[in-house]
Specification:
This protein has 1893 residues and is an alpha+beta fold. Helix content is 48%, strand content 6%. The strands form 11 sheets. It has a 6-stranded antiparallel sheet. The chain has a 3-stranded antiparallel sheet with strand order 3-2-4. β25 and β26 (1827-1832) form a beta hairpin.
Length: 1893
Amino acid sequence: MAAAAAAAVGGPQAPQPELPAPGLALDKAATAAHLKAALSRPDNRAGAEELQALLERVLSAERPLAAAADGEEAAAAGSGGGPGAAEEEALEWCKCLLAGGGGYEEFCAAVRAYDPAALCGLVWTANFVAYRCRTCGISPCMSLCAECFHQGDHTGHDFNMFRSQAGGACDCGDSNVMRESGFCRRHQIKSSSNIPCVPKDLLMMSEFVLPRFIFCLIQYLREGYNEPAADVPSEKDLNKVLQLLEPQISFLEDLTKMGGAMRSVLTQVLTNQQNYKDLTSGLGENACAKKSHEKYLIALKSSGLTYPEDKLVYGIQEPSAGTSTLAVQGFAGATGTLGQLDSSDEEDQDGSQGLGKRKRVKLSSSTKDQSIMDVLKHKSFLEELLFWTIKYEFPQKMVTFLLNMLPDQEYKVAFTKTFVQHYAFIMKTLKKSHESDTMSNRIVHISVQLFSNEELARQVTEECQLLDIMVTVLLYMMESCLIKSELQDEENSLHVVVNCGEALLKNNTYWPLVSDFINILSHQSVAKRFLEDHGLLVTWMNFVSFFQGMNLNKRELNEHVEFESQTYYAAFAAELEACAQPMWGLLSHCKVRETQEYTRNVVRYCLEALQDWFDAINFVDEPAPNQVTFHLPLHRYYAMFLSKAVKCQELDLDSVLPDQEMLMKLMIHPLQIQASLAEIHSNMWVRNGLQIKGQAMTYVQSHFCNSMIDPDIYLLQVCASRLDPDYFISSVFERFKVVDLLTMASQHQNTVLDAEHERSMLEGALTFLVILLSLRLHLGMSDDEILRAEMVAQLCMNDRTHSSLLDLIPENPNPKSGIIPGSYSFESVLSAVADFKAPVFEPGGSMQQGMYTPKAEVWDQEFDPVMVILRTVYRRDVQSAMDRYTAFLKQSGKFPGNPWPPYKKRTPLHPSYKGLMRLLHCKTLHIVLFTLLYKILMDHQNLSEHVLCMVLYLIELGLENSADEESDEEASLCGPERCHDSWFPGSNLVSNMRHFINYVRVRVPETAPEVKRESPASTSSDSLGSLQNSGTAQVFSLVAERRKKFQEIINRSSSEAANQVVRPKTSSKWSAPGSAPQLTTAILEIKESILSLLIKLHHKLSGKQNSYYPPWLDDIEILIQPEIPKYSHGDGITAVERILLKAALQSRMNKRIIEEICRKVTPPVPPKKITAAEKKTLDKEERRQKARERQQKLLAEFASRQKSFMETAMDVDSPENDIPMEITTAEPQVSEAVYDCVICGQSGPSSEDRPTGLVVLLQASSVLGQCRDNIEPKTLPITEEEQIYPWDTCAAVHDVRLSLLQRYFKDSSCLLAVSIGWEGGVYVQTCGHTLHIDCHKSYMESLRNDQVLQGFSVDKGEFTCPLCRQFANSVLPCYPGSNVENNLWQRPSNKSIQDLIKEVEELQGQPGAFPVSIISETNLSKEMESVMKDIKNTTQKKYRDYSKNPGSPDNDFLFMYSVARTNLELELIHRGGNLCSGGASTAGKRSCLNQLFHVLALHMRLYSIDSEYNPWRKLTQLEEMNSQLGNEEQQLEVPILYHDVTSLLLVQILMMPQPLRKDHFTCIVKVLFTLLYTQALTALSVKCSEEDRSAWKHTGALKKNTCDAEKSYKVLLSFVISELSKGKLYHEEGTQECTMVSPISWSPESMEKYLQDFCLPFLRITSLLQHHLFGEDLPSCQEEEEFSVLSSCLGLLPTFYQTDHPFISASCLEWSVPALEIISQWCSEINTFTETHAEQGKALLIQESRWKLPHLLQLPENYNTIFQYYHRKTCSVCTKVPKDPAVCLVCGTFVCLKGLCCKQQSYCECVLHSQNCGAGTGIFLLINASVIIIIRGHRFCLWGSVYLDAHGEEDRDLRRGKPLYICKERYKVLEQQWISHTFDHINKRWGPHYNGL
């Protein structure tokens, strides 16, 4: 094949070397060197041809792909067998040729030296951790790699770390995107100047080789692409091709990393058109090239693209390097219209949304020239490479290569243009793609790098019609999923909307394109072009109108909707992303006066689009009932541009407003949404399912509100300010369907609303009016005021964390607008309105976060209920704000009762909107207010306090915003002709307030009480006549009023446009079904004015007659300074007083009339007539109220009981307030302990047949094993050098000791000489509650049947204490008999120590001297056995079996007394490691040690120690010396001095019959203390130097015969030294001596201290034991006297001991046998051993007994140091970087959480580690989440984080990426819980982990 390929190269052939055999690198190098030389000659044609021929052969595209196409014949192809070999060969050749004969590595290094690295340009893929600094960024998309970030200086900047979603590139060094001050050290130097010029010959070969190489790559891509079958693209095939090409693309990627010099060569190659034309035209005679060219054409065609014939194109447009062929207009017509687009490959994806019936609409429009969509012409390698990249759906490798080239400026421009040229094609591929998410991310990965750069974006916009392309492509994309709109007029509607159920919207497929569009609109120069281009604006409005009215909701009236569609979220997301964000982007450029023209353009085309929309949906004047859409983007564009125009551009509002008729249409749909919100909250839409509530909530939610509800309300405010107020007000009440309710009559008929909804709809309507009239967001507030108001509203609802505040405050949604949350204004406003509450910690409480809470003056002056109502997503938040307000007023003493929402002064209105206030001064509103006041006063049904509150609010608003003071005279001038239906004379509220209304004619149902009452009056006709004249008000119909006004407005505008004479009434169609009830007219006598109604209301509210007295009569001052603090907070009474005062202030007439009304003694309010039905409901209400109060009372009582219980029982950390429990009854004379069973509630003693037990939790613990001997806790390693080695832990030291003993001594004796349980010891703790064991069994049964309980496993015996719900897993039987031993045991006896020793020995010898004989199987003994089994099963086998011969009884023996040891040692640690604090420990009162001792003793007595080797004998008797000699061949017993004295103590005590006598206990302690003291002396002797030893030996010997020689440590020490000198213990020291000797010189004081410290641990444990066994209190003391206090408490100190001279530890000794003889006996054992093993003998003598308290590892201050080291660290087991790395906080081990890579026998690594490190308890820090996770046995829980940000907040999963700092208090709490084993009790949310962590 190779030969054929060579032959195919035409032309004169150079003398050609034989093709070297593959693999001979030498030949390759030689050939390359030869060619390089040939090419360097001036005339290099021959060399060039030779190289061409060689490349043609090496890079022949046929060979590898034949192999790729059919894998079976792979072996046939290529030289090395298999498809890979040929490619590798080709790559080797290329590398050799590039290097021109030298080594490739050296070549790379040489090229790198010429790299002018001004830019970083590092490209990363998804999940990479990068940084973003807002302080340094110019573009908000700026990002930095970790290295550049840490090398730059960003202290005090607003930065955060983030996990890349789509991939990105580092912008360091690019001054277009970020400020130079933020560059890192590497990229600060503009280094291009001092880099030498690249020598020509270095890269000469590259220029020849690379074009062929890239062409070869393109041929591969062409060959490999098979057009997917009609249905599914064969992703498999594509991936196969890509895998084959992996090495080639990687090779290119490596080239780009060589730096600038190589990049510029690549740029030349990629953009050179001549090269491309020569190689790819397919004109040569090379068959292979022809074939690949054909495949390329097919691929183009199948993508729906045309390839213009060459000659034609060249005729039109000269092929210059820069331009692209987008401008080719010639073919626009030829390719058919848009209508046929995509018809081939679009299946119907409607899915099951029930939208199948709706046909998709295709638009056949010629909106834009076709060339944008359909013409592609490639003229360089770069263009075709991008084409294939898209075709193969953006493979990651290709993307990375293309992006890696971006630091080359020339390439950047060329690539951007190419990208734009392919934009339409990208959209088509994206739509078809099955992996659209991945593809979207890759597209944005590229485009964000290109379009964030303003200079580049501007250039492309000018040269390549970027804006046209983008808008057209978006339009095209959406046109594929349009359906007919059903809004308004279903049959005849011409409007089309997007179908939100389509995948395109549901999956956000449009996201990348929209995001690019938003990105380029953020650049001023680009946005200006957009705003100036009328054609573009028209197209864009066309695009926006596709979203107008989408996702229409129709109210279900009969039955619940079957399928709740969740498409609504897609609709909201689409409006926000595709419409609102571009709008905000454009608005950010319309900030100054000079941009007025832009606003005019947008408004003009917006109005045109709206007009078209109204026409298309056939809209006349009434909205269709029972349907609502939340999506009106056109309205919102219009509103926001209006707002900007007035606020920033000083435009005259009227110049951009349409005529009245258009305004009336504009207000209809936004008003419909407001009314629907009220309906949804009144549960009128329940049959539509939950999703409709979801829509109502999303509409006001913080991310959407300022693109949705705010513009809607603003638009309504604009309409209200320009339309007739009466028309507007009546429209509102009609929309809210409460017109019929607004009647004076006590009964009415509502045709459109059920009675149960009336009240909430009326509240809705009034609340809406209040919001409309008092909201100033767009009517004059400055940005800072808005921010402040938003913040106050959020803080008033609840205290907030900093991050939730940032999230809840609606920012200007377009992030490029410059108002970035977290900017300085945010912080400064926050500090002005709120106080920071630092996080508090209750042990056992939940972890608090740092919160912000409103300052007092904010509650006092700025709390704004209107803003709160507007911003609440959940209605309960409004209540929450009011509750907090109430609490504030109570606390500060401003108001004791239940306050009403305060009235807040508003920012002044912008002059353009003054008209809005006319709403408050129109008769329609006054009539409504009057009617409602009257109805409330007369107690008509369906009115609430809320209604009254809103009515008063509106009146107050009217008084605050009244027109300029009307003179009182003027009012009297106006004649009756101005009377409006004889209700009110004028339209000013101030004067209308005092206007008396005498009679009102109402239409009422015939059944109404009014009808009967009026009948006598109406008989005499003249009386009726007289009524008529005295100004009876007529029936007032809001609807009629609105119709009239509407007609007027229409007629006014119809005089301008003659054709619209009268609009047809369309509303008749929708009148309520069913006949209206018979209405008749009645006349009511009213005789009230608003003022008189208010005064009567005051009486009614206060419940007293004549309660209102005008305040100014007493204090005239009030009228002068009206702002009185007393009125600012209060309830309805206060509000009424405030209003009356304001009314009096506004006019003298009002003041006079108020005084008059008050003078008349008011008649009592008529008693309410209550019908039976009403009475029933009232009773019901009352009963409910009472029940509620009762319930509250009970709950409160229960809570307080629970609280007091919690305080006594649960609080682990407060020793004071604990009351002793029944177990430790204080009176010693009680003969038997009495227990309460918490299940059956009976009390009684524990008996053999019915034993009682303590609720206990058994858990294995390795906390003790973590003690170390140094004070400083270890720190967590954060560099490779730091490592933590466990050999200095307590557990390790004890292990070493045991194995050392086992090497030299008899196994059974070794197992008595030490304790185990430092690791995996069993810790027993109780909540102190007791229960009958049979009750417990039935309780467990019921738990087993109750499936609901999760979180613990009943099968494993787990349960929660029935009383206090503490977690437990076993029951410890209580031993019958008294706890506190009887007096007779307590009495000190006068027996000598020798007698006691004998008694002890005899007692130990007796078999089970228990009152219970073991043989008789009682319930008690069964339970004891079962609990022993539980204790054994609590820990793993490896922590129980230390014996060499498995299963030996010695093992169990050792295990049992070690359980006692573990519990004592842990209690000591809980007390802080010493007993200085004395007996006031809670642990003592809730301890179960006593019961545990009984269980252990019972089982220990089953085993007997070999009688010939009972350590007791060795301690108390002198032996004949010869006994040792006989048994030489046996292993030795452990010498008594090597024994652990504390273990001996436990063995001795547990071997005694229980209950133990006090004097026996003291006897055992005294004997053991002599041994301990001797051990201390031997250890001391080994520690000191030879000279010291001889000196001491000498001084001690002198005193040997003094009287108290046995109590002088000097004598004893000298004796020990002389005894041990007989053996070899002190020998062989020559060399090691210097290492072991402590250089300190021993003084008598330091020796005494050493001896005391050596003995203290034993004394502490013994005292604890005595405390538990005999119930004696521990004395408290200073640390320095701990030894003497404990020893006297234990009875070691003789009572007559004098305290005046310094205390000497030796004085505690009491020898039962002559001291020197027994010491001599003990020392001789050691001498025997050291004959052979001197080293080990010495090591065993020095026992380290001074362990410090256990600690978790210390963590660094800043979380980043942990994160940077661990998140990239490789796991030592699987050597991969874990996806979820974690680190153990106990020992610092690095583990893979959930990693399958490190799984062993179905256990994942964390679970495994928790078993090995903590015997089932693991504490892990999850690196990527900053959270701590606790594993306890088979359960786990998330504990929380110990790292908080500057605002005291956790950042779980590092979502915010702000710097985190250690919270010491939290870490202390964690450590405390670990040490006290209370994870199970304190953390509540446990779940099973199934070994998968």
